[in-house]
Structure formats: C-alpha cells, structure tokens
C-alpha cells in the first residue's frame, strides 16, 4: 500500500511533489487506515490521489494559479491575433512547412507504392521468376522455349507450381473487323501460382491443360465491365476471335494487376508448349515455392532440369535456369531512384524543421521584452510557454495541412513523369512501374512528423524563455544568436549537399538524353500491321511490299521501312547463327539477335552505314544472299578485321549462306545507358513474319499522319489489323523518363532546400541588425560608414556559411560516390556541378545577408539612440 | 504577485471551506480533514490528492501560507506543516462573504428564505 501511494506521487509535477508529497502521504495513509477493510473507500483514496495529479497538472498549465486571467480560449485568441499581426512570419513559416510536407507526402507515397506495398498477390516471397540464362553469351534473364518449360516442370524440385506465360495479342472481331487486344497466353497453373481467386466463374485449370480442351478465355474485371456489360451471364458467352470463338469461363477480381496489363488471358496447352521448337525462346516462367522451401533449395533441381534439357536437345551448351523473386525484380530497378528521392526529401524536411526552429527562435528572441513584461505581470513561465507552444502548433498544423492538401496534385504531376513500364536490366522483358497512391497513412505520418518535429525543435527556445524571467524590458539577448547561426549553418550544409546531388543528376540526365541512340527518332512513326501468318512466304512478302508502296505514295511521307520487331519496344528475337568459311562450312555457332528488314529500313530509320552498303531490292535473288550486321556484331565476331565478305547461316532454312555486305551503326535498343546488343539484319523476303513493324518517316507531327496511314494499309487489304501506332520518340523517352523524373524532382527539392537556407541566413542577419539598432546608431554617430557596418553584419554570418559550404560539398560528393550507380557519364567529383553549387549557394547567401544588412544604412543615429 | 482579491471571481466551494477552517485556527492536513468531515457532516470528503491540490492553489494564489515546519507533536514523526490564512486570504473571505450576503439579501427580497422558515 505504502509503495503504491508513494508511486502515485510521481504522477504529480515535481514542484508539487517536493512541497506537499510527504504531507499527502500522511493524509492518504490516514484515510486508508480510516477506511478499515472497506475496499470501496480504499479505492477512493487511490483514485483521488491519481486524479488529483491530473487536476494539479491542469492547474499548472492553466491559468488559475498565474494571476493572469483567461484559459486556453483566451490564449488561442491572443495567438491568432499575434500571428495575424506578423503575417510575413506566419506566411513564411507555413509556406516552408507546406512545401516540405507536400514533397514528403508525395515521395513517401511512391516509396510505399513501390518498395513497401505488398504486390497484389498473396505470399509474394514465394513467387519466383525462372529465367533461361547463358553466362557465356552474357544472357542472364532470358525467356525460354516450350520444351525447356516442359523439362523445367518435370525436373525442378522445390516448386509447388510452375507456369509459363507469353505476352501477345489477340484479334477480336468487332463488326467483322479485327481489333487487336493485348492478351496473355498462360499455362494451366498460372493463376494458381499467383493464388488469385475469380470474381465470377472459374480461372484456368486442369481442364485447359490437355490437347482437345475447349477454346476458353478469362477476362479482367474492367473488360467484363466495359465490354460484357458487367453481366453475370457473360460466363459461358462466346467471344468472336479471328479464326475461332472462345468461351468466357471466368472474370478476374477487380484490381487484379499482373506485370502485363492485358485484358484477356488465353490458355496455353501443354501439348502446344511441348511441340514448340527448343530454340524458339518465347515464354516467361513464374513459379511458386513449396511452403518452407527457400530460393537456395531450388538450385539443384534447376540444374537437373537444365542438364536434362541439354541432354535431350543438343546445341544448348552453357545454358541453365535461374530463379529470382518476382517482386524483387519489379522493385530492383526503381529502388535506387526511390531511395535517393526518399533520402533527399527527408533531408529537405529536416532543413525545413530546422528552418522553422530558427525562425521561431529569432521570433522568440525578438519577443523577449514582451515575454519578460508578461512574466513580470505575473504570468508563470508555463503560461508563456503555453502561448508559444500554441503558436507553434497552430503554425505547424496549418502549414502541414496546406501541404497535405497540395500533395495529391503534386503526386498526380509526378505520376505523369514516371513511365508506365521499366526495362528489367539484362533482359528484354519489362515490368510496369508500381505507382504511388495518395495514402492516408503516409499523409498522417508526414503530418505527425511535421508537427512533432516542429514542437521538438522549439523546446530549446521555450526553455530559453525561462531565462527571461526577471529580465526587464530593454534587456538584449545576443547570445541566443550564436546557436541560431549554427542552426542556419547546418541548413546551408545540407542544402549544399543536395545542390551537388541535383547538379550531378542534371548532368547525368543530360548525358543520357544526348546519347546517339543510332537512329533518328524524331519524325518517325512506328506501328505493327498484318496478320498473314497463314500465307506462304512469297505471299507475305507481296503483302508487305504492297503496303510499303501504298504508304510511300502518301503526301508528307519521306521514307518507309519494314522490320519484324520495332526498336526500343523491348522485344527481342534470337537466331542461332553459324559463321561459315570460304567453302561455306560452319566453323562456329552462336546465339545472337536478328531482325528481318526490307531494303528501305535503314534509310527510313536514319541508321548510318559504317561500311559496305545497305540492302537492295534484289539482294535475295541468286544463290548468295546479303546480310548486314551492326557494329557490335562485327566487333564481337571479327575483332580487328572487316566483317564485309564474311559468310553466315542461321537456323532458319530460308536464311542460309548469307554474305555480309554492310555494317550499320548500333541502335541502342535497350536504352541509352545499356550497351547495344550485337544484331544481324537479313532481308525479309526470305521468311517474313505474319505481323511486321513499319517505320514511316514523315514531315511534321508523326501522329497527325496516322489516319492516312491506316487508310493506305487498308486500301491493300481492309481485313488486316494495325496496332501500336506510336511516334518512335515516345519509346526512346520511356528509357530516359526515370532519370528525367529523378532530375526534375531532386532539382525542385534542392531548390527548396536552397530557399530555406537563404531564408535562415536572411532571418539571422535581419534580426541581428534589428536588435543592434542602438549600437549601430552610436557607431554611425561616431563616424563609422554604413558600408563598413553592413560588412560587419554580413561577415559573421558569412563565415559560418563558408564553413557550411565546405562541409556540404564534402558530404554531397561522398553521397554521390555512394550513389554512383545512378550517375551516367559524370564522376561524383564533377567540376561543373561542384562549381555551380558553390556559385549558387554563395550568391544566395550573399543576397540573403546583404538585403537585411542594407537596413543599416537607413538607421538614423539620433533616433536610434533616443529609442534607447 | 497575486491579483486583488476584490476583483477575483467567486471562491470555489472547496477553497472557501478550507479558507474558513484555516481562518478559525491555523492547522495541518489531517486535522483539517477531520474538521471538514465534522463541519460538513460527511457531505464533503476530501482526500489527499484533492486536499493538497486545493491547498496548493490557495498557497499559489497567496491566500494561505505555510508556517515554519512543525514536527509531529503527537510523536508520530510524520511531517506536519501548519497552514494559516494570509491577509489576502482574509480579504478574499470578506469579499466572498459580502458577495454571499448580497445574494442572501436578494433571496430574502424574494421571500425565498422566509418560505423555508
């Protein structure tokens, strides 16, 4: 009992405990003993002691003991009035906080959306991607062939389920015209790997695995809503595709989003996979680990499957399987950018809070007279602290609320800058960028961080008010300025570091943007057309020649070329290639990318011939056929000598005994920062695909030519589909969008930090001049020139600024070394970036200290001394 | 510096009672409680927390002050601070009495007290 009562005393304010604690214990014991065994009465004793603490605290913080009347409402009114009077201070502090909170909420929404959010499928840590890889060829993340997938399914251990998928297109008949819809061909276990449940009907399963299975399709929720009128009876309905009709068997849940946003999922039967050519690599593979199995436990099974595959299908030496977590791949490419942004925005938030503390400190110092008077009139320091806290709270909450209101708009703007897709490094596959969604949890955290941070940073100033007790009006406190100067110095240092980082990112993005991608993308329109897979090679060639002629005849068309896969679209197509000797016998073989193109392609694309010649219309006549290789191909396979005149064959019987007639400049089709892949170009006449890409060079805006192009193609055959009509520039931009967005964001954040630092410098110098009016007045009267006094005022602050600049530069360069992976073409110690930072920071600091120091010149000595 | 008692708001009932008890005779906590229990017929029962919150408030407002520490006269050894009313406290009591008197007069004028009698 004794201990309980004594412990309760700790709930009381220390002063109260010291003064009355022992007496309270005596009284409480007296009551306790008087209560006898009555539990209720004893409870009252304990409760009274506890509640009394609440009462005393309330009295302390309230006004009943201070002699100055009025409670919270009075103080709140006073605070609002005083903030209104100093509207400049109010607006500045709130703007500072609003900007930083808006930036923080935006960036952290992205962090949460990309790095912290669970992917839209359960147990993401168990979902793996399995790649084909050939370390000798430098292929780490490759798609695999159907037979390889079958072996994988049979041999790999540790996986509960393995599924293949392929991103393609389906031709849906609308008014008897084929409309291309993105479709994902997926094997039977695909949805079970992701553990998705249908919203309606069923997803794919065993009945879709075997040959002879009914033609079915699973649709996404938006497709069901928009195209099937959200009708429950859509299950079992027939969708007309070109060639066959498919029965809708299921609808995916709302919000289901996989790596490829296709509205249709078409089953991929095991027999189709098994019958595929082992070298025709085509499929992505997803697998779900068995419960309790780690990624490392699967390597033996993967090795076994690869060995078995190599045994059954000779010619795949060096080839193996590799598994990695799907989510890890999805976030790996954006993680450095997002983390850099998160660090930057945290630093800016910190600078903003320090700035607020600085402004608050200066305001408190400036108000010491007023506060001293209030305390002399009987207000306890607690009351004064309450007023100051209220003021801080109001400013912090107001600024943070403004920032949060602006955050969704900022988020929308930033989302526009971020590309929809990003390339997976060392792979031709792409993944969608997960998006930042305005998140109430993130918003509340930003709000709380701003308010609590501001409060915490103002505590020292609050405590300094205690020191003002007993000081009369007129007492000046210059000492407080020293700490404030250091705070501003810290701001300048952080801002400097951020400026260095921003400068490096700007230069890096500029480098990326100015890289020669190997073709002239401006004024180039690209699209896919045709679905003539059923025709023989000669008829396909005739069809594509016909469409080229029809397009060439259009006004404003400057050149036309045909290629099977549009560059920068992240598509790849590999061929088995044999290097032949003079007697046309194969000497070695390799796997490289190849493209089938027509004779107009290089010219239309603006690709430069480095040696030899481009294709000519009759290059495919006669016994020896022409081939063109790119520079990377020539350097890799004929290092140090000319590729011209060399002979090659491919796995495709239509392309045998090819003679290299030209070397063309590399197209950096995997992005400007990635080394271009070796590439073999062959004439399309041999064996064109049923769908080909077309490059059309036009005068003016490429998209404005799209309608005329469509009509021209349909004038050849009105039943042929046309898809993916895009200006080439749009693809090229995708590759640089992330660095560009990062550049814009970091630049804005650095500008904000710079502004904050300048504001801090301005505040300190301005305060120093104001409080030293009389001293400066005396010195002016004694003959000092205003110019000299101005310089004195600026000098103290600028010494701190110079030191901070040095610290900040060092910090910025060190941080840039850590984030070297994000830099392209610039070193962390990039002289222009460092010089630019010094220039900007020095100019900002000079201006920010000169403007308030100028007021020295306006001091009237007689008036200043009279005021004293 | 405490405010003028005359300008002060009406005393709270607890404050008033304790001031009155201390005005009769300076005393210490436990004794104060017992007298309060007796005087109010058990209707007002303060405990340690509420009693010393009230005393604290009265001391802070300058209406009551502690006398120099007196040791436990009854040999219990417990500390026993004796409190007494200050001149300000007396003035506050007077002001309160006047305020209540005027209220009583108003009530009498309405025959409220007569009826009860």
Structure, described:
The complex is a heterodimer of chains A (868) and B (117). Chain A is α+β, with helices and mostly antiparallel strands. In chain A, 51% of the residues lie in helices and 17% in strands. Chain A has 25 helices and 24 strands. In chain A, the strands form four sheets. In chain A, strands 1, 2, 3, 4, 5, 6, 7, 8, 9, 10 and 11 form an eleven-stranded mixed sheet that branches. In chain A, strand 1 and strand 2 form a beta hairpin. In chain A, helix 16 runs antiparallel to helix 24. The two termini of chain A are 62 Å apart. About 2% of the residues of chain A have low confidence. With 117 residues, chain B is mainly alpha-helical. Chain B has one domain: Winged helix-like DNA-binding domain superfamily/Winged helix DNA-binding domain (Arc Repressor Mutant, subunit A, Orthogonal Bundle). Chain B is built from five helices and two strands, in the order αααββαα. Chain B has a two-stranded antiparallel ribbon with strand order 1-2. In chain B, helix 1 packs across helix 3. Chain B is globular and about 50 Å long. Chain B starts with 12 loop residues before the first helix and ends with a helix. The N terminus of chain B is likely disordered. At the A-B interface, helix 2 and helix 3 of A face helix 2 and helix 3 of B.
């Amino acid at each position: 009992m004794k201990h309980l009562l004594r412990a309760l005393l700790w709930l009381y304010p220390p002063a109260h405990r010291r003064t009355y604690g022992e007496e309270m214990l005596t009284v409480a014991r007296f009551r306790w003993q008087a209560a006898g065994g009555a539990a209720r009465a004893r409870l009252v004793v304990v409760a009274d002691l506890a509640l009394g603490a609440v009462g005393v605290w309330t009295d302390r913080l309230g006004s009943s003991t201070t002699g100055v009347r009025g409670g919270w409402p009075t103080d709140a009114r006073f605070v609002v009035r005083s903030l209104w009077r100093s509207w400049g201070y109010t607006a500045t502090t709130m703007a500072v906080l609003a900007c930083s909170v808006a930036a923080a909420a935006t960036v952290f929404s992205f962090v949460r959306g990309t790095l912290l959010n669970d992917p839209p499928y359960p147990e993401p840590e168990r979902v793996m991607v399995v790649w084909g890889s050939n370390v000798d060829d430098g292929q780490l993340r490759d798609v695999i062939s159907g037979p390889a997938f079958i072996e994988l399914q049979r041999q790999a251990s540790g996986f509960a389920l393995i599924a293949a998928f392929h991103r393609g297109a389906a031709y849906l008949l609308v008014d008897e015209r084929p409309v291309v819809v993105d479709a994902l061909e997926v094997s039977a276990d695909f949805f079970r790997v992701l553990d998705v449940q249908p919203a309606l009907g069923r997803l794919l399963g065993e009945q879709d695995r075997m040959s002879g299975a009914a033609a079915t399709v699973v649709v996404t929720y938006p497709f069901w809503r928009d195209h099937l009128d959200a009708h429950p009876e859509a299950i079992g309905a027939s969708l007309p595709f070109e060639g066959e009709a498919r029965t809708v068997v299921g609808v995916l849940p709302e919000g289901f989003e996989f790596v490829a946003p296709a509205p249709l999922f078409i089953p991929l039967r095991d027999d189709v996979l098994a019958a595929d050519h082992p070298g025709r690599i085509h499929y992505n593979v997803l697998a779900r680990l068995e419960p309790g199995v780690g990624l490392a436990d699967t390597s033996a099974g993967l090795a076994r499957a690869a060995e078995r595959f190599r045994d059954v299908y000779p010619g795949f030496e060096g080839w193996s399987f590799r598994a990695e977590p799907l989510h890890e791949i999805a976030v790996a490419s954006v993680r450095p950018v997002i983390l850099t942004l998160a660090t930057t925005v945290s630093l800016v938030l910190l600078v903003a809070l320090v700035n607020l503390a600085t402004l608050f400190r200066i305001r408190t110092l400036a108000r010491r007279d007023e506060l001293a008077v209030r305390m002399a009139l009987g207000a306890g320091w607690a009351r004064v602290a309450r007023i100051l806290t209220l003021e801080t709270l109001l400013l912090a909450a107001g600024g943070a609320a403004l920032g949060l209101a602006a955050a969704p708009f900022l988020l929308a703007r930033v989302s526009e800058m971020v590309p929809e897709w990003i390339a997976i490094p060392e792979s031709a596959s792409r993944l969608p960028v997960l998006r930042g969604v305005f998140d109430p949890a993130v918003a509340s955290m930003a709000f709380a961080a701003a308010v609590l941070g501001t409060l915490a940073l103002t505590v020292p100033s609050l405590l300094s008010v205690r020191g003002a007790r007993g000081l009369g009006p007129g007492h000046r406190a210059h000492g407080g300025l020293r700490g404030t100067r250091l705070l501003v110095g810290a701001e300048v240092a952080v801002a400097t570091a951020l400026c260095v980082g921003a400068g490096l990112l700007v230069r890096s993005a500029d480098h990326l943007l100015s890289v020669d991608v190997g073709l002239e993308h401006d004024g180039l329109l690209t699209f896919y057309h045709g679905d003539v897979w059923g025709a023989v090679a000669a008829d396909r060639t005739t069809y594509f020649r016909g469409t080229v002629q029809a397009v060439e005849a259009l006004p404003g068309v400057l050149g036309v070329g045909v290629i099977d896969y549009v560059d920068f679209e992240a598509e790849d197509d590999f061929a088995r290639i044999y290097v032949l000797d003079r007697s046309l016998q194969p000497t070695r073989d390799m796997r490289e990318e190849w493209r089938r193109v027509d004779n107009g392609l290089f010219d239309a694309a603006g690709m430069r011939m480095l040696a030899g010649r481009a294709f000519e219309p009759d290059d495919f006549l006669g016994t020896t056929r022409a081939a063109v290789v790119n520079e990377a191909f020539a350097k890799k396979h004929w290092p140090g000598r000319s590729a011209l005149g060399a002979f090659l064959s491919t796995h495709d019987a239509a392309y045998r005994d090819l003679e290299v007639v030209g070397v063309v400049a590399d197209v950096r089709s995997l992005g400007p920062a990635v080394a271009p892949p070796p590439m073999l170009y062959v004439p399309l006449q041999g064996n064109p695909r049923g769908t080909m890409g077309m490059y059309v060079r036009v005068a003016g805006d490429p998209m404005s030519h799209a309608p005329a192009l469509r009509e021209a193609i349909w004038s050849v055959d009105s039943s042929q589909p046309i898809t993916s009509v895009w200006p080439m520039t749009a693809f090229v931009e995708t590759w640089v969008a992330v660095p560009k967005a990062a550049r814009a964001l970091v630049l804005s954040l650095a500008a904000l930090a710079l502004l904050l630092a300048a504001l801090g410098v301005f505040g300190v110098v301005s305060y120093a001049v104001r409080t030293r009016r009389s001293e400066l007045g005396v010195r002016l009267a004694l003959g000092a020139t205003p110019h000299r006094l101005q310089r004195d005022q600026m000098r103290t602050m600028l010494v701190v600024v110079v030191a901070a600049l040095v610290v900040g530069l060092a910090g910025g360069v060190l941080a840039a070394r850590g984030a070297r992976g994000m830099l392209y073409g610039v070193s962390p110690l990039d002289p222009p970036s460092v010089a630019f930072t010094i220039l900007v920071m020095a100019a900002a600091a000079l201006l920010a200290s000169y403007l308030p120091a100028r007021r020295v010149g306006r001091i009237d000595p007689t008036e200043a001394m009279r005021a004293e | 510096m405490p405010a003028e008692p005359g300008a002060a708001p009406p005393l709270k009932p607890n404050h008033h009672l304790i001031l009155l008890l201390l005005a009769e005779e300076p005393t210490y906590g436990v004794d104060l409680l017992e007298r309060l229990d007796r005087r109010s017929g058990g209707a007002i029962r303060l405990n340690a927390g509420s009693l010393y919150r009230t005393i604290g408030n009265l001391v802070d407002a300058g209406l009551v002050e502690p006398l120099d520490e007196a040791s436990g006269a009854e040999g219990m050894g417990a500390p026993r601070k004796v409190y007494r009313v200050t001149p300000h406290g007396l003035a506050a009591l007077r002001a309160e009495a006047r305020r209540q008197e005027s209220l009583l007069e108003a009530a009498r004028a309405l025959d409220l007290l007569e009826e009860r009698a």
